[in-house]
Amino acid sequence: MPCRKLTVIRLNFIQLVQILSCSVGNPQSLGQQPITFFREVLSLCDHPNILDRPQTKELFSADAIERARQILDQLPGRSTGSYSPTQGNKGLRETIAAGIEARDGFPANVNDLFLTDGATPAIHTMLHLLIRSKQDGILVPIPQYPLYSASIALYGGTLVPHYLDEAKGWGLEISDLKKQLDDARSKGITVKTMVVINPGNPTGQVLTEENQKQIVDFCKEEGLVLLADEVYQENVYAPDKKFHSFKKIARSCGYGENDIALVSIHSVSKGYYGECGRRGGYMEVTGFSSEIRKQIYKLVSVNICSSNVNGHIIASLVMNPPKVGDESYETFRAEKDAILSSMTRRAKILEDAFNSLEGVTCNKAEGAMYLFPRINLPNKAIKAAESVSTAPDAFYARRLLEEKGIVVVPGSGFGQVPGTWHIRSTILPPEDKFPAFVDRFTAFHKKFMDEYRD
């Protein structure tokens, strides 16, 4: 009875405290405003009857009106409600291909693009294609985004882990990759693919160009498909770091279309746009034989329509935003810069806050939307967690929710070096509320450590 009463008291307390969700990279749910140009174009595409009304020119920018007309001309029946082709509308894919080429400086083929409902279906499609049985392995970084472990399990494969080096800023060591690969092969596992998340989730690191070259060479030499999860490519905060796509790196290394199998994945859910609910994205598939490409096409065809057309439209706008001289450009640039500058400040504030706490160490916030601090929990806290059959970091996270209404994800949900404990927190609470968020977290941690200090 006492435990039940305590739980009821805690639940009642949670109801009185504003819940602050720092567990999911869902920017607009926490108040981030959508990009005006994107929403103007989308509104006009969804309701084309207003395009020719006199009031439209007063309410919408001229370039948004023109872009909507161009997109509608590419859609069957000039309607966002019509099915799209299996790979997505060709006109939208051409726009995205042009954006990729402008970003990387290397050609992009419209036939290599498959438009998707965000990154998740792309990952599912490729893992479904690559995994035949438990004997097929996928190299995955640890800590990892749980979609990978869950999908590998779903399709009956084997996750081959390689641990990122926390002491080196979550660096990726080729020697460790080689060791894990050889160990898996010695057990009869055919390792098919290497997954790389850059910028990193949950760890927030941004790979150096040299490290990326090493990874490309490694995949080439070992005959691995490189699955590049690049959904956070706009989220880079470290002044000495820059995003480079793996396709750009591969081409700059001299590897052509047929030299290395590469799947590049992007999404409209992250970046400065944060359009999670639109479910838009694409995968660019290069270096595969015509027979394998046919199988990818067949898998995607099962869904009849590749994904929702609104998501396709947003993806095309992300890869081809307003340019200098367009009516929307100044507003677009101001909105984009404001969002990314604020994220940079929030990331640094939270990094410094974590590092100021007793027993907490946190690597630099280089990119993505998360920090993954290590919490050296007292033995007393670890034993308390064990007494209720809970992982110590989950015990910590639950107490944080119960006492301060802050939702984070335990590191045990992502994988971590045994005996270490972490949490993942987003940097997405509104900037004007960030000091209060940090104060709530700090007060909780001090109280928790006082309670369980050995």
From TrEMBL:
One Pfam family per UniProt: Aminotran_1_2
First and last residue of the signal peptide: 1-31
EC number: 2.6.1.2
Listed cofactors: pyridoxal 5'-phosphate
Pathway annotation: Amino-acid degradation; L-alanine degradation via transaminase pathway; pyruvate from L-alanine: step 1/1; Photosynthesis; C4 acid pathway
InterPro entries (UniProt xref): ALAT1/2-like, Aminotransferase_I/II_large, PyrdxlP-dep_Trfase, PyrdxlP-dep_Trfase_major, PyrdxlP-dep_Trfase_small
Keywords tagged on the record: Aminotransferase, Pyridoxal phosphate, Signal, Transferase
Record's subunit section: Homodimer.
PANTHER family per record: ALANINE AMINOTRANSFERASE (PTHR11751), ALANINE TRANSAMINASE (PTHR11751:SF29)
Protein's recorded name: alanine transaminase
Species, as recorded: Saponaria officinalis
